Amino acid sequence: MMNKLITLQSRPQGLPTDETFAVKEAPVRQPEENEVVVKSIYLSVDPYMRGRMSAAKSYVEPYRIGEVIEGGGVGEVVESRSEQFKPGDKVLGMLNWQLYSVHNGSQLRKVDDQVAPLSAYLGVIGMTGLTAYFGLMDIGRPKAGETVVVSGAAGAVGSIVGQIAKIQGARVVGIAGSEEKTKWLTEQLGFDAAINYKEEADLSAAVGQACPQGVDVYFDNVGGAVTDAVMNHLNDYARIPLCGSISAYNDASGKSDIGPRPYVKLIKTRSLMKGFVLGEYMDRLPEGAKALGQWLSEGKLRYEETIFEGFDRMPEAFMELFNGSNIGKMLVKVD
Amino acid sequence: MMNKLITLQSRPQGLPTDETFAVKEAPVRQPEENEVVVKSIYLSVDPYMRGRMSAAKSYVEPYRIGEVIEGGGVGEVVESRSEQFKPGDKVLGMLNWQLYSVHNGSQLRKVDDQVAPLSAYLGVIGMTGLTAYFGLMDIGRPKAGETVVVSGAAGAVGSIVGQIAKIQGARVVGIAGSEEKTKWLTEQLGFDAAINYKEEADLSAAVGQACPQGVDVYFDNVGGAVTDAVMNHLNDYARIPLCGSISAYNDASGKSDIGPRPYVKLIKTRSLMKGFVLGEYMDRLPEGAKALGQWLSEGKLRYEETIFEGFDRMPEAFMELFNGSNIGKMLVKVD
């Protein structure tokens, strides 16, 4: 069986390009005792992967040049030497950017497409939904009646953050980059207001107008000028979960991430800001999965996916994340 | 009895000047039932007062034009219509920038100059010591063996922060603005290293060299370029109590507080940053006072004071805070 995989050919300076990636073919190795072979069905592309393409130290190891790009996926067991899995089982795991992968069974989790569509295990009830849940509930801690602002609000994480905040009784304002997105937030997801940051000459004033009671929680996925604008409207004791800073990820020089320092504002409002990743909540995943699954089954959570068809389009799908072309979770359906 | 008081004449743009203040005279009003008249002995000048001279919203009300400048002090009861106080009692309270003040007894706390010198109730065992204690212990949470960096390290708060961190078993690095200060930190207070930021061409490299294991706690009193340099060396899960940002307080335009945004660094290290003021810990003051008093009596805490003599020098003493001319707590001895 021939495998196809996408490797990191070179570390990007600025935006990734076609030069960043290489497609390789190699035979799938035979599974050993307790191992299974999985055929990829959906593979995930996520903004955090940009960080791993750089050599800089971060919370996960950088990808290595010439090796397959790591990432989550959902697939089907096609060969098994493990007692826990049989061919046909659907599984979630680090399938990486490849058609087939060989795993020790302990690294995989069985998923049930009767409970939720397979793709949802990568999104609303998977990594991005759980990231939204823990960042908002553990750091943001919204209370009924408070105002929650979410940047990157139409993305896989932001769209879930806003809906969870609504479930908590908060007033929710989303910031996104197109009218299609802001309409989706207010008309489909129940956000109280949404701002298209690309159309606002004075973004800070727009945030002030959308948040007449100020901002109690700011869930940040983008950083940069959007965050500068929100920081002008913090209420006392605001909480700011820092989930992502996508505006800065492709900055090769580091120089464009210059802006107002937030320190005085944080002191004056006695606010809390914390960077986080889902990995910090490994021992609480069942709690998050249970809550998300229940809200989903009760119809309280809606989600959207942007799905590119065809394995070869993985680099394209990944690069489109930085053009903001996705609504909801960005996925590649392998074939 | 004639009183002398210093009022806010105009809101400063940038550094306060003589125009900021006016000296007035007025008779001391007669105490009513339960009131006492206090003669000021030591009055406190603190960087946070700069914030109250601006009209902008913050955690305390702005000072009002034409009214006495509010602040803490230690004095002696000279007339009493309260059963709780008798003439000669030494008291701590909001005596404000004036020779005499009239108080309801409930607003004052008796202090004992046999337990500690009167001036210490404004510093090491008073507001600045307690600020150091709660910011470090509640937000910074240093563990033995960790590296704690303190900016404004020779100031009233910073010098106590570093010593408490040493008591907790941390390695402590101070950043201050003169060789006299850095020598005092390492030779008198037991800091492991100290950096004179005015003499470093590459401050970030100097921090890196002084912190070979990275920075676990950064207690920030100054903000600006000093903070930028420290942020390059955060360890995973660093904690950053934001106590002050003196480098930005006198910036009239707001434009000079532009620098590297910290968001990506906070995410990569999953660090926590929180602005705080002592007022958040009102219900825990006895805990802090007990710990500070005990360490002081055990000889584990040393402190310095810079004392200007003469009530008329209050504005000068206040303005000197921003020149960095004080070591330890800045006070005015009234006469």
TrEMBL record, chains A, B:
Q: Which CDD domains does the entry mention?
A: PGDH
| Record's keyword terms, sorted | Oxidoreductase
Q: Which Pfam families match?
A: ADH_N_2, ADH_zinc_N
Specify the domain of life of the species encoding this protein.
Bacteria
Gene3D superfamilies in the record, alphabetically?
Medium-chain alcohol dehydrogenases, catalytic domain (3.90.180.10), NAD(P)-binding Rossmann-like Domain (3.40.50.720)
Domain Enoyl reductase (ER), which positions? 14-332
InterPro entries xref list: ADH-like_C (IPR013149), ADH_N_2 (IPR041694), ER (IPR020843), GroES-like_sf (IPR011032), MDR_fam (IPR045010), NAD(P)-bd_dom_sf (IPR036291)
Q: Which GO terms describe its molecular function?
A: oxidoreductase activity, acting on the CH-CH group of donors, NAD or NADP as acceptor
Put simply, this protein is called Enoyl reductase (ER) domain-containing protein
